[in-house]
Amino acid sequence: MAAKPNVIFIIADDHRYSAIGATGERAVRTPVLDALAQAGTIMAQTHINGGVDGAVCVPCRACVNTGTHIFQATESQRIGDHAKTKVIRSGAATMPSWFRSHGYHTHAIGKWHNDTASFSAGFCGGDAIFFGGMSDHRQVPVFDYHADGRYPSEARRIETTFSTELFTDAAVGFIEQYDKADPFFLYLAYTSPHDPRTAPEPYAGMYDPEQIPLPPSYREEHPFDNGELDIRDEKLAAYPRRKEEVRRHIADYYAMISHMDHHIGKVMQALTASGKADNTLIVYTADHGLAVGQHGLFGKQNMYDHSIRVPWLISGPGVPAEQSIDALVYQFDIFPTLCDLTGIGAPPNIEGKSMNALIRGETNEGRETVYSLYKDIQRTVKDDRWKMIRYRRSANTGQGSDFVQLFDLANDPWELDNLASNPQYRPQLEKLKLDLADWMARVNDPYAELFL
Predict the structure, then answer these.
(1) 194, 64, 189, 53: which is closest to 130 by C-alpha?
(2) Which of the four pLDDT bands, split at 50, 70 and 90, describes residue 86?
(3) Helices vs. strands in the chain: H and E counts, helices first
(4) How far is CA 374 from CA 151, 227, 247, 304, in A?
(5) Nearest CA to 307 among 7, 18, 110?
(6) Prediction pTM value
(7) Distance separating alpha carbons of residues 180 and 195, to the nearest angstrom
(8) Of all helices (H) and strands (E), which one includes residue 431?
């Protein structure tokens, strides 16, 4: 019987689906991720479930690690309760704890951004562990791994090595030194390309802002109040958004991505040198996307595809090479898919579904629709062509608008032409309203009544 494959699960911060050469934006240089895509499969329509406060990364990481939707993954369903949304639901089988219970040596490096209890239950070891959300990339507050699960503030140290290099060095060291008979599950979580976008040279100077192409969805301002125009992310650039400033931000964003890509290459080199590459599954994803000037926005607190679509590249034993799949899937489908590919079976009663049959070409069906949310102000549902975004004014802040958008993604992938008021498309709009209601009922969305 062949040994179970190792797993390297890499998750970045703020990396939208299209910002990889192999998946869309040819201006960004990502030779390592491009090679990973060519060696395996691109899941081209992978979506997050959304967030209940401005720190969208917290519930997204909880969802991907529990293989289920936001209201099942987290401890609290209260919108805006940031402290609670940092807690994975007590007793939930997380990806690391599940693999650990099935004979894997689980090792964590980098950003967790959830509670220490779920972390300790999941990992056998770790290095340079970051429990926070963001930091200066040269002032990273990290912990050593503690088997007792205690991480008091006095045990934290500040690392001055650039975060991407710090986490890469730890991952390379783990691969080089790993000598156990058990297969390993390496969880490598970068904080790049999250701001502050301060990549070191030569990457900082790699992209000339004047040569950066603006996306077709560039706008000086968002056309209406979406309920979250004053959050920190939206204050990274001035209003109105000027072309030269947006280009500079995109250049800095690309620089962070290219720097990270180079260091992921070092992890891949170490894996090859270890002799374990042929029996290792590799996943690359991100917690969510980012606007960086599209639709007049800069953050991830919105329902446009640049913010809710993320990379999912997968390669390794059992995964066909040079394949791109356009079927709709969720980010939280990664966990049960990895369980299927490693032969350990997924936890029961989770929303995530294995996409192994889709990857192997045994079916061409993913999900009929996907659903995402943000606070009590935004909901979206989309099928393989049509997408509806529903906005409501927040009862808590008074911000936002009662507004609907309908996009024909086949002819308008940049989401620019709102068809919601066109009677010709009323059947599509009404169908998506029913789909949205079905999803909100299915996941017990506590604000469902606002959007019906």
Answers:
(1) 189
(2) low
(3) 12, 18
(4) 31, 10, 27, 11
(5) 18
(6) 0.96
(7) 37
(8) helix 426-442
